[in-house]
Write a structure and sequence with these properties.
The complex is a heterodimer.
Chain A: E1 4-6, E2 10-13, E3 19-25, E4 31-38, E5 42-51, E6 54-57, E7 64-70, E8 73-78, E9 87-94, E10 102-103, E11 107-111
Chain B: E1 4-6, E2 9-13, E3 18-23, E4 30-36, E5 43-49, E6 54-57, E7 60-65, E8 70-75, E9 84-91, E10 99-100, E11 104-109
Parallel strand pairs in B: 2-11
Antiparallel strand pairs in B: 1-3, 3-8, 4-5, 4-9, 6-7, 7-8, 9-10, 9-11
Classes of the chains: A mainly beta, B mainly beta.
Amino acid sequence: DVKVTQSSRYLVKRTGEKVFLECVQDMDHENMFWYRQDPGLGLRLIYFSYDVKMKEKGDIPEGYSVSREKKERFSLILESASTNQTSMYLCASSLVYGYGYTFGSGTRLTVV
Amino acid sequence: QQPVQSPQAVILREGEDAVINCSSSKALYSVHWYRQKHGEAPVFLMILLKGGEQKGHDKISASFNEKKQQSSLYLTASQLSYSGTYFCGTERNAGNMLTFGGGTRLMVKP
């Protein structure tokens, strides 16, 4: 089975800190995604990547950036964390478009 | 634009049936369905492509009405294990990323 691993399950950071969320997948998937999940809002796409060093903005990219230096790793960066970025962050990967996504277990980030 | 899911929540007794709907105002290429249990990652259930199709997955099946831009997820003879939040994800063109609905919380009671 494909495994998508997110480095931290829970994180607490201070306002203004630079935060790195790491995601690694082990099945050579081309596509990787970062979503944030908030109650009542479902999953909202922040960024996605369809190849190494390639990235596309999703619906809510403001305040975030991403890095994909290797095919298996996709990092989400909060340049200067703010309290409104407190959320559950989910990483996902898929083989190609038209296939289901495999999600990681999520990182619950609290910014204080 | 986010697809709209209905209902937002539903409570069932074991053995009862349920239907969850997912509607979009835009033409769709595909619809995905996922289930997320509390504290866990969303799990892929099935994908339906335009052309109007129906798929089955044990006692969980889904349809996609291309003309109405609507998909429905059918849960038959529900089991306790069906409890969770169901999300639809829509893709407007092949090669686009998924846009998810707000979710439908399903609770199955003994």
